[in-house]
Amino acid sequence: MIVIEKENAADAAAIESLLNIGFGEDRLSKTVYKLRQGPSVPSLSLVARTGFDAKLGASIRFWRCDVENGDEILPALVLGPLVVDPALQGKGLGRTLVARALEEADQEGWDLCLVVGEASYYSPYGFVLAEPYGFELPGPVDQPRFQVRAAPDLLRSLAEEPMARKVLPWSGTASGVEESGDASCAA
User: In this structure, is the dihedral angle defined by the CA atoms of residues 116, 118, 121 and 123, taken in order, positive or negative?
Assistant: First the structure.
């Protein structure tokens, strides 16, 4: 039995433990963590619980970020971290969380999402390489792992206007996506 639900404050320690197992404690020094400032997006921070004891088996979080696009700032999401308990990997928990969270992001009106991860894992969800569209993270990144997912019209527009597009921590000034009314999740 698998139950998908929104992360709550009581999940913080279990998620942190899974993140340490999955990515190591040095994960906080990675470039993408420069974008994970403040709280994650509560409506998109999901967990998968398994078994009759409802053990936390996986977690996904998203953070808001800004993308410089000429004279405008585009609102965007950064997917991750996505983590699955090693004992439960290969059972579809991660894919279930990604699909569900992206569906909810689409419903909320998020047209732009970035991720640093395996292209083969994220391409089925519509992610493509970010570099050809000019996206630049605020530090080093393995370019084949840096990907973008955007609404078709937006992706076409980005392709037609080549420029450097710096990805920055969320400033709260970008418009286009309504603020979720949920309380914030842990950072």
Answer: positive
